[in-house]
User: Fold this.
Amino acid sequence: MKYFLIITLLMVNVFVHSQPYGQGELLVLNKSDHNVSFISLATGKETTVLEVGKNPHEVAVSPNEKYAAVTNYGNGENPGNTISIINLVKRKVVNTHEFVQGIKPHGIEFADNETLLFTAEGTESFYLINLEGEVLDVIKTSQKISHMLAYDSKSKLAFVANIGSGSVTVIDVAKRVKVKDIMTGDGAEGIAINLEQTEVWVTNREDNSISIIDIQSLKVTQTLATENFPIRIKFTYNGNMALVSCAKAGTVMVFDSKSKTKIKSIVINEQEVEDNGERLSASFGEGPIPIGILIHPSDKFAYIANTNADIVTVLDLTKLEICGRISTRSEPDGLGYIK
Assistant:
């Protein structure tokens, strides 16, 4: 019995230390390398890398985890116009859908296993397509730099953050019509819907603020102050906390999503890499530039993509502190997760 207990404890110890960052795999978009890395959270090591289009920015995973879709945004000189579809079972890019020149696809979400929603900055538009690339509808936002989006499955409303207009465009996906524009603040960019699907939180990067929109009234009900350049926001799965990456401050702020108060600000102490003149993030200034956020379904970990440091920082969500680091390729940004 004694030896059995010793062996069991050793097995438990190996199991714990072999999965330092959670279970499953992280999908990391490497903007300057034009590819997607699959990283095992058990080891922190890359298992697969797939070439996609120029300067991929955001990724969405279908609810059944059969497919991932990547927006290939391009750059100022060569604006992108493609979306890559990845078969997650085969670990293979199975389609590259091409659209009109210069649309600059960016934010993307699955409405269901077959339907994709994405923003097109270059044409101030919102697209609905299927996995085969068929355009189901195009709805004009008529707002400047329509960037990120969040989809509410309960109301069938999509919310598009427009950086240039400082607004959020509301689109009824079921009826395929634009509902209204809601003014939030300068540089509206990061956007997420709370667990109860009653509120939309929008980060205004130029105003250093968060606007909270009531989904029923479609009005801003509260504004919260943030640190410099809030660029992304994600809620934990239990709905208790909201994490905000503040790119120029080099921090991740943690808010209590119920009381709407700040819990903590975590400094992301990552060393920026030398700019070779090809990095898109150089315009954001110095520092690690934390952008992409992903919360593990267990709510034990959060992953922060530091686009100037080529590092994904791992946060322990119980202790609210840094617990690990994962090296990436050049300029990590958008993040996805598969079990």
